[in-house]
Amino acid sequence: MTTLLEAVTAAVHGDERKMVREDARQVIVTARECLDGGGGLYASSHVAALEAVIANLVPTCTDRARQCSLTMTVVAHARALIDGTHVSHSYPARRRLRLLLRSAHQLLVISQTKPRRRLRWIRRHTSLPLASAGDRPLGPGDARPAPPSLGARRGWLGPRSSTAIFADPAVFEPVRTWPDIGPMWVQPPTALTVRFRPAGVESMPLAVVSYHLNYASSGNRAVESEWLTTWADKKWTTLDGQTFTTPALLGGDSNSFPTRGTPNDPPLPTLSKIEDRPHRLHRSYIGPDGRRQMDTRPDEILRTAGLKDVARYWATAPGGNPAAVARTVHGCVTHGPDARVDRIYATTDLLPAVRGVEVIEVPLTKSDHNIVRLDLDGDVLTDILTGPISAKLSAA
Asked: Domain extents for the chain?
């Protein structure tokens, strides 16, 4: 409850917490300019200013820390930085300034974030679907509003690509586009690095890729798949110089088959029973024994690189659903039986966030492909994207 004295003070001087945050912003900006400009001689004066900022922000953030274990870690670390118990008190001024700057920035974000309960609701009611779009390719970094049926979402379509990424920019913040996606592509993928806003500005971003592998050439598909694996090895450097490998999520039409071994997965077609002779060629390759066999190489390549087929994962996970590996294309006389050519792959660090994989049947009058839907738990995703940074922070 606001007291009369606090009300009068706010009326005369403005909201105290707002003033503290504004002061913190100015000090942070000035300190960052000092670091960027190499002003080592003045680092000690900025150290004192940032210590004062942290001391002012800690009380506000302490109230919020009770709602989030990650926030508790950040606040405890900030206290240690200013109460003399942290080892950085013996650091040179410039090195200590870098630590204080990061801590002050984290506290500033915490002091102005929404309540945890509301964030939890946002996280559990958002998703990042991958969808196809046949419109003209956009230039690097361009964005086009999605159709009205997608509400607040926006679409990104890479150069010469035919597969787009749609996301709500209020939930997923694009931090990088990837116009240079390597050679050999007939239909290049659309790739973005995005930040999950509910996880905070200091969280790791993740790479998302929407792809369409070559229709006619198994050799080209293998090369394209190898290029796809590069998004499982993208690095991200934080403000204080720490480098992490970002999680990745890739989805699209693989125009090939998953390797055998998962119950309920549609069986591989028999090559001789595919009546369309060109299609036999398109979906097969010559094996080591000189005979043609059905093409599973893209799946093998992606899995060798550490990416996991989320449908296969969910079909065999405790509490999962075997129907996750249902067909994504219908069988026909010319192209053979039902198959699961549309797949979503994720780096292993994202698997704990998986809460469901579902294949949604689409009438053939609308599309010859079904929809693969992946559901992620927003709270777990936040922990994944902030966990490595928090662990390094605690060890500092």
From this structure: 4-113, 122-385
Which pLDDT tens digit goes with each residue over 37-61? 655 557 788 888 899 999 988 888 8
Q: Which H, E and C letters describe the chain, residue by residue? A: CCCHHHHHHHHHHCCHHHHHHHHHHHHHHHHHHHHHCCCHHHHHHHHHHHHHHHHHHHHHHHHHHCCCHHHHHHHHHHHHHHCCCCHHHHCCHHHHHHHHHHHHHHHHHHHCCCCHHHHHHHHHCCCCCEEECCCCCCCCCCCEECCHHHCCCEEECCCCCCEEEEECCCCEEEEEECCCCCCCCCCCCEEEEEEEHHHCCCCCCEEEEEEECCCCCHHHHHHHHHHHHHHHHCEEECCCCCEEECCEEEEEECCCCCCCCCCCCCCCCCHHHCCCHHHHHHCEEECCCCCEEECCHHHHHHHHCCEEEHHHHHHHCCCCCHHHHCCCECCECCCECCECCEEEEEEHHHHHHEEEEEEECCCCCCCCECEEEEEECHHHHHHHHHHHHHHHHHHC
Question: Each residue of 166-217: pLDDT tens digit?
Answer: 999 889 999 898 888 888 899 999 999 999 988 887 789 999 999 999 999 9
Which one of 1.10.10, 2.60.120, 3.30.2420, 3.60.10 gives the CATH number of domain 122-385? 3.60.10
